[in-house]
Amino acid sequence: MKVSMMAALALGSVTLVHAADEPKMFDVSGYFDLYYQHDFGNPPVGTSPFFEENLRGFDTRSDHYRLAAAWMDVKYAPATSPVSFYATLLAGDTADIVAAGEPGGVENWKNIGQAYLSYKTTGKVPVTIDFGKFWTPIGYEVVDNRANDEYSRGFNWWANQPIYHTGFRVTAPVSPQLTLVGMIAQGWNEVQDSNDNKSFLLGATYAAAPKLSLILNGYFGKEGSDSGDVNGIFLAPYADITLVDLIVSYQADPTLKLALNADFGNADFGDAQDEEENSLGSSKFNGVALYAKKTLDAKSSLALRAEHTEDPDGIRTGVATNYSSLTGTYDYALASNFTLRFELRHDIAGDPAFNSDDGLKKNRTTLTFAQVIKF
User: Fold this and answer.
1) Which residues, other chains included, contact 329 with Cβ-Cβ below 8 Å and sequence gap of 6+?
2) Could you give the angle at the alpha carbon of 164 between the alpha carbons of 104 and 330, nearest 5°?
3) Phi-psi region of 139 (alpha: psi -120 to 50; beta: other; left: phi over 0)
4) Could you tell me if 74 and 87 are in contact, meaning their C-beta atoms sit under 8 angstroms apart?
5) Terminal CA-to-CA distance of the chain, rounded, Å?
6) What is the mean pLDDT of residues 336-359?
7) CB of 288 within 8 A of CB of 261?
8) Count of beta carbons in the 10 Å neighbourhood of residue 109
9) Cα 260 to the chain's mean position, in Å?
10) 113: which residues sit within 8 A by CB, 6+ positions away?
11) Fold of 3-374
């Protein structure tokens, strides 16, 4: 789906909003995310977008002006019906990269980030049931650039967390402080299941205090494929995956937000088909990221992220090592719908893992200038 098609869809949807008898049932929003990045290591062909070579999410090219994402959210929610529909349409590099491990094929699903029906019950505890494809509830960072403190995604987000799921999700606010969520899904970044096994998530969000919130998610299931086919988690053969995801967010004052996101994962290869495939036995993948965002004034803010991720067997990143980074992002709003983002980031790997004009290196520094245009 080209950018021009996205723009046409947006225009058509806005026209429909104004023409409808009940305009409030429709909501359309979105943005364009463009960036120019310079990698001081001067990799010969830019930075590869492939998982094992880039490790940076969606800012995948050095010394190129790129469309990271053309994004449109569509919501249809009649006021008199318990049923609603949500969709996210995508184009640009983000669309290709999100769907890179999709067993059903990149081209089949890359332009549909989300598409799900939602049903909300009535009663003392209004339960919401979603069915379809939706973004994962795991992690502090998200695919949607508008909601992130930093411009680039961290190693912990990219290596240790899924991006999307397809299946059923149930959300229940059991008290003003506690919300529970449960999910049955095809798997880790999968619309088409790669192994005919389902994955599960149980989570809780707890408002411990007016300024403090805690989120705990547990994800488990059989992932990967014993045939070596493309699969959402980039593992072959099968592995029993367990992931615990913790998010702590603290609003210190109206202008300062602090957060922590920690992930503890384990892949058990006990069901591998032969001794050679089973050589790993089990492998852990872990990461922790610390965040701070300071609002400077009505138009600008400064965000910092420090993180460390470990992949000792290379099952998530392709290189058996650890990764750390320090990132600073300055945002300036030229208008309510136009934000400039400036980011300086320094990455460190325990072993050579980053492309440069002199081969693989342990360090990488990038400077990124991005523009986010909302509609």
Assistant:
1) 149, 150, 151, 302, 303, 304, 305, 341, 342, 343
2) 130
3) left
4) yes
5) 18
6) 94
7) yes
8) 22
9) 16
10) 71, 88, 89, 90, 95, 98, 133, 135, 143, 164
11) Porin (2.40.160)
Q: Tell me how far apart the alpha carbons of residues 144 and 34 are, in angstroms, rounded to a whole number.
A: 13
Range 303-308 contact pairs with CB under 8 angstroms and sequence separation of 24 or more? 303/149, 303/150, 303/328, 303/329, 303/330, 303/331, 304/328, 304/329, 305/149, 305/150, 305/154, 305/329, 307/154, 307/155, 307/156
User: pTM of the entire structure?
Assistant: 0.89
* Residue-range domain boundaries for the chain: 3-374
Q: Which residues lie across from 28 on neighbouring strands?
A: 74
Measured CA distances, 17 to 3, 6, 32, 212, 372 (Å): 21, 17, 21, 38, 24
pLDDT per residue as tens digits for the range 283-328: 999 999 999 999 999 999 999 999 999 999 988 888 889 999 999 9
Tell me the chain's radius of gyration from C-alpha atoms.
21
Q: Which amino acid is at 115?
A: A
Structure tokens at 246: 């913790």
Query: Rounded distance, CA 211 to CA 216, Å?
Result: 17
Taking 3-state DSSP, the helix, strand and coil percentages for the chain, each rounded to the nearest 5, stand at 15, 50, 35
74 token code pair = 């569509």
Question: Position 42: which residue type?
Answer: N
Q: Please report where in the chains the tokens 């400039």 appear, as a residue.
A: 340
Which tokens sit at 325? 């980074």
